[in-house]
Amino acid sequence: MPSDAAVHVVDDDVAVRKSLAFLLASEGIPVRLHESASAFLDEEMKGEAGCIVTDVRMPGIDGIELIRRLKARGVTLPVIVITGHADVPMAVEAMKEGAVDFLEKPFGDEAFIATVRDALSRHERNSHQGAQIAQIQARFEALSERERQVLDGLVAGKANKVIAYDLGISPRTVEIYRANVMAKMQAKSLSELVRMALLIDAS
């Protein structure tokens, strides 16, 4: 990653900001803290390297609106959103708006650092995206119709029970289809699966 790349943590919770700052600093990753989305937007960000970590639910400007405003300003820093379990649909919406990943609370230190490092190196992989999309498309085409229906439900941010009701099958059956989808798509997490689905949808 570029030597001047920094992680911008945008969160209204001071304890979260300090905790993430300590974790990033312990890994030698430069970090800058912002107490709100509006405070972050007051800074000139064009041309900067790095990434943004923001809570999806904040007073005033939330994480989704922050992404929209950054896009409108031409700011292309990768955005990672942090979400509680109940806010996964919001996180999926954030990814549709352009976020590169989301982390469900509580998340481990290693998972957080890995996600941040992935975002920081994202620009280096952009040239390989075409080949990646082709691979993902091939995996998608190997899914059965029912598996695709379950995938659609997951991308929409629906819980297993809701998907089961929509499709007229049991939640246990949805879990089986979900596991099959994860395996066939070679996705290690729900956020990675959503990212894959959005990539082939946009291609």
TrEMBL record:
Positions where 4-aspartylphosphate occurs in the chain: D55
Keywords for this protein: DNA-binding, Phosphoprotein, Transcription, Transcription regulation
Entry-linked SMART domains: HTH_LUXR, REC
Protein origin, superkingdom: Bacteria
Cross-referenced PROSITE patterns: HTH_LUXR_1 (PS00622), HTH_LUXR_2 (PS50043), RESPONSE_REGULATORY (PS50110)
Database matches in InterPro entries: CheY-like_superfamily, Sig_transdc_resp-reg_C-effctor, Sig_transdc_resp-reg_receiver, Tscrpt_reg_LuxR_C, WH-like_DNA-bd_sf
Domain HTH luxR-type positions: 136-201
Pfam families (alphabetical): GerE (PF00196), Response_reg (PF00072)
Matches recorded under Gene3D superfamilies: 3.40.50.2300, Winged helix-like DNA-binding domain superfamily/Winged helix DNA-binding domain (1.10.10.10)
Residue ranges annotated for the Response regulatory domain, each copy included: 6-120
NCBIfam families reported in the protein's UniProt record: PRK09390.1
Listed name of the protein: Response regulator
